[in-house]
Write a structure and sequence with these properties.
This protein has 145 residues and is of the alpha+beta class. The protein is 30% helix and 38% strand. Strand 6 and strand 7 form a beta hairpin.
């Protein structure tokens, strides 16, 4: 399972991450948007999103140039406008083990994963513990900006 979280201008965007039939992930509705300062709301949004899993969706039409749903929630018109002020992380879960994935800005595309910064949790770590750590990371990133 895989989920992505976006931090932009003090808000955490928690989209549903769907599995496209060809084996990649796509951002789909619903999307939760909560202030990063509201720890309980961020925890709830991420827990609910993780509970939904990764629904399967058909591959998008290659001619469809509709920007990802996040642009609508951020009030911007283009993906590049969203990317300009955003950071992204991922959470992977495989056989009950969690990993936080770290991405670095890679203009103009968006982000590239930095595997050297991944945080791997020991076996037995709960989803709640992984979520709490993810929140701490995002709140720290906000303070450092």
């Amino acid at each position: 399972m895989h989920w992505q979280l976006y931090l932009r201008m003090g808000f955490v965007y928690v989209p549903t991450t769907a599995m496209v039939q060809r084996g990649f992930y796509q951002i789909v509705e619903p999307v939760a948007v909560v202030p990063v300062s509201n720890t309980l709301a961020v925890h709830r949004a991420l827990a609910e999103t993780m509970e939904r899993g990764n629904p399967k969706v058909p591959a998008p039409d290659p001619s469809d140039r509709t920007p990802p749903a996040l642009t609508k929630y951020a009030g911007v018109k283009t993906w590049s406008s969203f990317v300009r002020n955003a950071s992204v992380w991922g959470i992977d879960e495989h056989e009950g083990e969690f990993k936080i994935l770290v991405y670095r800005g890679d203009p103009p595309k968006g982000w590239t994963r930095d595997k050297t910064l991944d945080e791997i949790f020991p076996a037995g770590t709960s989803a709640d513990q992984a979520i709490d750590r993810m929140i701490a990371i995002m709140q720290q990133a906000t303070r450092e900006r």
